[in-house]
Amino acid sequence: MKHTAVIGAGMAGIAVARTLMQAGHQVSVFEKSHGAGGRMATRNTPYGNFDHGVQYFTIRDPQFMKAITRVPGTPEICRPWSANAVRVLDPLGRVIEAPLPLREPHFVAAPGMNSLLRHWAQPLHEARALHLESQVQFLRRSAATGKSWDIVCSDGVAHTGFDQVVLAIPHVQADYLLRQSGAPAAGFNGLNDMAGVEVAPCWTLMLAFPLAQPTLNHLGPQWNAARSTHHRVAWICRESSKPGRSSVERWTV
Hints:
single chain, alpha/beta, 7 helices, 21% helix
């Protein structure tokens, strides 16, 4: 049995940790945020939830399908989302193309996208294997054995005795962590591979209209999701159209 440290509690990190745990290995997951989720992020507000990360997911892999349909409690969390077909808008917000048919079902987690990973992380939490609000500062080889790994967090606490470490974090964070850990001096070639990776960050605008009351004269947009040709706006979604959400009119841009 090996003891593995997994840094990052997003989809990749939780999937790796659960797989290793189910295979009989010891696992410790370190996450800098206050909960599991990663890119499957949800912001709670007085007006309802906003999925300000991943907007939905599809199921293409048979193993993922098994996880969604067979892991206890998961089918109740993951629900199909009918977006009424996805529109295409011009830079002024006008519909310029007929609705794009959904080629594959769209799914969301309820009541928020982070609900799925928080559910899947529960066995790790119960096993005291999930360390939240624990930002890893650097890795180091054990001074005692020279073989195992130590994980040192920002609070100065060192977690020791790991046989291997999995980085399930964005490459910019991984690059920084490895450099802080002396990877260049150790001749780690993976830094050169990561140097060629390009990141396209995005901003998310969350809008709530608690006083909006659709009438015959003011129905609002007759669609729930659209892609935009505007050079700064890629996606527009009516959050309140997703299952398990508050009915307050809310949009994510």
